[in-house]
Design brief:
The complex is a heterodimer of chains A (283) and B (481).
Chain A lengths: L3 E7 L2 E15 L4 E7 L3 E6 L2 E5 L3 H15 L5 E6 L4 H6 L7 E5 L3 H10 L1 H4 L7 E4 L3 H6 L5 E7 L13 H10 E10 L6 H15 L4 E8 L7 E8 L9 H7 L8 H6 L5 H8 L4
Parallel strand pairs in A: 6-7, 6-9, 7-8, 9-10
Antiparallel strand pairs in A: 1-2, 2-3, 3-4, 4-5, 10-12, 11-12
Chain B lengths: L9 H11 L17 H7 L1 H5 L17 H13 L3 E5 L2 H13 L5 E5 L4 H10 L2 E5 L3 E2 L4 E2 L4 H10 L5 E5 L6 E2 L2 H10 L3 E6 L15 H4 L3 E4 L1 H4 L7 E5 L5 H11 L6 H39 L3 E2 L12 E2 L3 E5 L7 H12 L5 E2 L3 E5 L6 H18 L20 H5 L4 E4 L12 E3 L5 E3 L7 H13 L3 E2 L8 E4 L1
Parallel strand pairs in B: 2-3, 2-6, 6-8, 8-9
Antiparallel strand pairs in B: 1-10, 4-5, 7-12, 9-10, 11-13, 13-15, 14-15, 16-20, 17-18, 17-19
Helix pairs in contact in B: 1-12, 4-12, 5-6, 5-11, 7-8, 12-14, 13-14
Chain lengths: 283, 481
């Protein structure tokens, strides 16, 4: 039997993974949720037909979205995570003993329930006592918060669908207000390669730049995301991510598979065409 | 025809049948199912163009409906609880004009509040009826005109026993309703007809716990903008009639100015929307009310902004309030409504229906989702955080009592001259000046131009309101009698 999952990366490009079997399929209030079993990537979570995480390559995304800001400021105690229903981001955060509180705001409870049951690899630390789960709209949650967080991680879906509000000017402005004076905002920043993704990336960068004095972008290579070349946004009121205390992070002795402090320095060095896109993000 | 049920949509069904027959067209429109205009077809879609067709026996004729359009009208009348309903393809403006012109002839009086839409005064210019304005009163804090008090109406009836009809807004732009049952009673006792401009009242006919729809309250005619809150295409609307009205005569009045090439896109959109509201209206408007209630609560939590609601009710000039309307007072944030309206669009990519001097209005309807509601609320919170100013020195009233010197028709068709607005004080205005939206005239033909009105116009212009109505598109000159 030939059973293939196909994601349309652009109108003219498709990406397919051979599926062994379908584990889960539900329609929530917000989106369609599927979990597949595959030989090449293990279990795969898709939302509305778009790959969110796979067991094989999720470590790249989750390590990069968490360890870069955590290595930049060693005094991060209060963290807000928006989206991230699979739990992978929270899993990485819980490896830091210095963190006192992790508020995770996911709009779709069904995603969390499905991952707890079928993707324990990422959902395994959602019951950590420092974690508070809120099932609501991220935009709404952050509206009432002022000067409360050291770090906000926006681990969202693409800007079409339930994640749309997390790419808006009003969201970034509210995040700025919710962060302390030395706060950091890290977000899933789409891909620079395909035209439509690049448009979202430019738009997000232009909007974040309106609020934060330090705005950088870093990259990682994620095999199952469109083009495989993925970006993260790093915005901060005080800290430059490239000037950080390497030794302090290495002494924490956190075992990682993708992230290391040499890569941390290098990941902010971007291809020329990406730099050009970002420089002209306002257009 | 008596077996028709609300789950039917006769015009839509006839169009589908027509399409399936693949009829060869040697008829207008010349684009012939879109083939003759590939760019337009690519833009609007083949499905859309294939039903952009001419009247014909199987599809009936809007000017003289005896087939599927008539069936659609019967279903619409039933859905709205009216005796008769007409499909209108030239906007609710045409419906308002048809109401006025079918009850008032040249020189006859009609009682109305001054905060009517320009379409009502247009009808006076065309038909020659004379307005008797009732001051709707104004809420000073919010700067909004209110509904009509029953006492004021009774007084106007007593002073003008020869008037033919009373026209009311149900609701006003801001969601305010008058006591229509009492007004209908008073009108009928004096042998006058009651007409309702329900451009913003479609949902009253379908939702629970909403203000009373005009026809139910005893109004004789109502103009209902199905496209505003009911989901049909822009420009499509219903004209409803009660049993005191000779609908055949009204049809003749409609046909005086209505196109003879009624668009089937508009007509079928009315048919399908009527079916949707008849079948699902309660649930749809419950959701709309929840959204609006939630948005109001959250916006009032931000502080500064005031999203007003039923607390305004005073059993007289504010007899009821339409809670689906999200009207927000912005003055205490130090911003004019029009400024918030512009910031929302230019900086946050959010288009709301209008902003005037003190308020903004966001339409919440059948098409909304909580995602967009959250964006609106959060954007307002950000606008307050980043733009809040001292509100001292801001204009603090909205309604200016007009001084009518001659009838709108007489003034409009008089010998006019164009003079600079700056120097027009104490002249008689011969055209309209209004902010659009909402399209409620600041000055109408036949009214005296006062210093107060000029100050208002300059302030509105300075704040960025989109002024319209004058022959001079730059609004620097004005026609006076």
């Amino acid at each position: 039997m030939e059973l293939w999952f196909t994601e349309q990366h652009t109108k003219n490009v498709r990406f397919s993974i051979k599926i062994d079997k379908q584990i889960y399929s539900e329609e929530s209030e917000f989106q369609r949720i599927d979990i597949f079993e595959s030989k090449e990537f293990g279990r795969i979570l898709t939302l509305d037909g778009y790959v969110m995480v796979t067991q094989k390559d999720e470590f790249i995304y989750h390590e990069m979205i968490v360890h870069v800001p955590m290595a930049t400021n060693h005094n991060i105690k209060n963290v807000l995570v928006i989206g991230a229903g699979d739990g992978g981001t929270v899993r990485e955060l819980t490896r830091y003993k210095t963190i006192k509180r992790i508020d995770m705001v996911e709009i779709d409870k069904l995603v969390v329930d499905a991952c707890r049951e079928h993707l324990p690899q990422t959902a395994c630390r959602l019951d950590d006592e420092r974690v508070n789960l809120y099932y609501e709209d991220g935009l709404r949650f952050v509206r009432s918060k002022v000067n409360e967080y050291d770090l906000i991680i926006v681990d969202s879906t693409d800007p079409f669908g339930p994640g749309e509000g997390l790419f808006t000017k009003e969201f970034y402005g509210n995040c700025y207000k919710a962060l302390k004076d030395d706060g950091i905002l890290v977000n899933q920043h789409e891909s620079p390669y395909y035209k439509e993704d690049a448009k979202s990336m430019k738009r997000a960068h232009a909007r974040i730049k309106e609020y934060f004095p330090i705005c950088k972008v870093y990259q990682a290579h994620i095999p199952t995301y469109p083009s495989g070349h993925w970006l993260f946004g790093f915005a901060s009121k005080k800290y430059d991510p490239v000037c950080f205390d390497e030794q302090a992070w290495n002494s924490l002795n956190i075992k990682s598979k993708y992230y290391n402090t040499a890569l941390h320095k290098g990941c902010f060095a971007l291809p020329t065409y990406v730099n050009q896109l970002l420089e002209n993000a306002d257009e | 025809m008596d077996t028709l049920s609300q789950s039917r949509a006769p015009i839509y069904e006839a169009l589908k049948k027509y399409k399936a027959k693949r009829v060869v067209s040697f008829d207008v429109p010349g684009h012939k199912q879109g083939r003759g205009n590939p760019d337009l077809t690519a833009f609007l879609g083949q499905d859309c163009l294939s039903v952009d067709v001419n009247s014909m026996k199987p599809l009936d004729n809007l000017c003289h409906p005896v087939g599927v359009i008539r069936e659609g009208e019967i279903l619409a009348a039933e859905a709205f609880g009216a005796e008769n309903a007409f499909f209108m393809v030239n906007g609710t403006s045409a419906a308002v004009q048809a109401m006025v012109m079918s009850v008032c002839k040249q020189g006859e009086k009609i009682i109305m509040p001054r905060n009517v839409h320009r379409s009502a005064i247009n009808a006076l210019i065309v038909g020659g009826a004379v307005p008797v304005y009732v001051d709707p009163g104004v809420n000073k804090k919010l700067g909004i005109p209110l509904g009509m008090s029953v006492e004021d109406i009774k007084k106007a009836i007593k002073e003008n026993p020869d008037a033919k009809a009373i026209l009311v807004n149900n609701p006003t732009y801001y969601g305010i309703c008058s006591n229509l049952e009492e007004i209908a009673k008073a009108a009928h006792e004096a042998d006058m007809l009651l007409l309702a401009d329900e451009a913003h009242g479609t949902h009253f006919y379908f939702g629970d716990n909403l203000p009373m729809p005009a026809i139910k309250a005893g109004a004789d005619m109502a103009a209902v903008s199905m496209h505003k809150t009911g989901g049909s295409l822009t420009q499509s609307s219903f004209l409803l009639m009660g049993k005191n009205v000779n609908s055949g005569y009204v049809r003749q009045i409609v046909n005086l100015t209505q196109t003879t090439s009624g668009s089937y896109l508009l007509i079928s959109s009315l048919d399908i929307s009527r079916r949707n509201l008849a079948l699902n209206g309660k649930a749809i408007f419950n959701k709309v009310m929840q959204f609006a209630g939630y948005a109001r609560e959250e916006i009032n939590k931000i502080g500064g902004f005031y999203a007003f609601s039923k607390e305004l009710i005073n059993n007289d000039t504010i007899y009821d309030f339409d809670i689906t309307k999200l009207s927000i007072h912005t003055k205490d944030v130090g911003l004019a409504g029009i400024e918030v309206y512009d910031i929302l669009r230019d900086e946050y990519g959010i288009q709301i229906e209008f902003g005037d001097i003190d308020n903004i209005l966001a339409i919440i309807s059948v098409g909304d989702r909580s995602l967009e509601i959250e964006r609106l609320i959060s954007s307002l919170a950000e606008i307050k955080r980043q733009h809040m100013k001292d509100s001292a020195g801001m204009f603090d009233h909205e309604y200016i009592d007009p001084r009518i010197v001659m009838s709108p028709q007489e003034a409009f068709y008089s010998n006019k001259k164009s003079i600079p607005i700056m120097g027009s004080e104490n002249k008689i205005c011969a055209e309209f000046v209004m902010c659009y939206p909402p399209g409620i005239p600041i000055l109408a033909p036949g009214e005296l131009i006062t210093k107060e009105i000029l100050e208002y116009i300059f302030y509105a212009k300075e704040k960025g309101c989109f002024l319209t109505g004058t022959e001079d598109l730059r609004i620097e000159n004005i026609n006076v009698v």
